[in-house]
Specification:
The protein is mostly helical. Helices cover 57% and strands 0% of the residues. The protein contains 4 helices and no strands.
């Protein structure tokens, strides 16, 4: 069963609401990973890129869960890590 990527990330993303550009990045990253495609993104200069790496990781984790490769059993624990 496919999970909505925005719903999945917003449940565990605690830093701030996702901006429109972050949502667009996340959708594109999820789609690329789900279709086994390489995703290349060039962020603007002087912009913090660490959140992009985190969003990409979350998209990858969701795909692994959907495919049965990964199972997170304690959602409360995973929520405290972020």
């Amino acid at each position: 069963m496919k999970t909505d990527i925005m719903e999945y990330v917003e449940k565990i993303w605690s830093s701030a609401p996702l901006t429109n550009s972050q949502k667009e990045f996340l959708r594109d990253a999820y789609e690329a990973a789900d279709n086994n495609m390489q995703f290349i993104y060039c962020s603007p200069r002087n912009q913090n890129r660490s959140y992009l790496i985190t969003l990409m990781a979350l998209a990858t984790i969701l795909i692994a869960e959907e495919r049965g490769v990964l199972k997170i059993t304690d959602r409360q624990y995973s929520k405290t890590l972020l």
